[in-house]
User: What shape does this take?
Amino acid sequence: MTPILPPDLSNRLGALSELVGSTKGFMPRDEGMALALSLYNCDLDARYPAVEIGSYIGLSTIYLGTAAKLQSRALISVDHHRGSEENQIGWQFHDKSLVDPVSQKIDTLYLFRRTIELADLSETVVIIVADSQRYAAVHKGEIGYLFIDGGHGETQAHQDFDSWVPKIKVGGILAIHDVFEDPADGGRPPFELFQRSLQSGFVLTSIQGSLRVLVRATL
Ligand code: MG
Assistant: This one.
């Protein structure tokens, strides 16, 4: 079932519908709407930023940024913009149009910036071009919201959890993408992160497709 959105969020996302449809990515509309709603429902003071790990070309950022903008909350989008393991040559989600002919590496940064500008989110989204662990080491403050959708490999996914989840304030939200209970539907690490969160003071609040949303009840 598609989530029901409050009118202000629904109207803003409706105005961006064409951009959503033309932005490459791995976020079905119903999950994107649930993602936006999960941040919209975060009632912690707006001085606690939202953080997105793994922004790719910005499809999920449109949803999160739109909710953040309504709250006057900053959304920090962290990505090295070289593509995750599964985006590299020879892997299932490789897109050769994203390879920079000079560096011969994937480069999603300019397309990401374009998405942010077209979505009128330049004043909301703080773009961080860095490995998520490197940035976690220098980002010292508490955060109100975390979306984990970075590298889906075992090591990377668990490192993202270890380095970012402790920064979430009590009452803050954790959203995890690509959680599949059945191994036949997808890789294990995001499901493992979901299980770890249930043992780390978080309570499940909503499920939409492979998206899991939890709230931090205790430290
Ligand atoms: Mg994903």
About this structure: The mean pLDDT is 95.
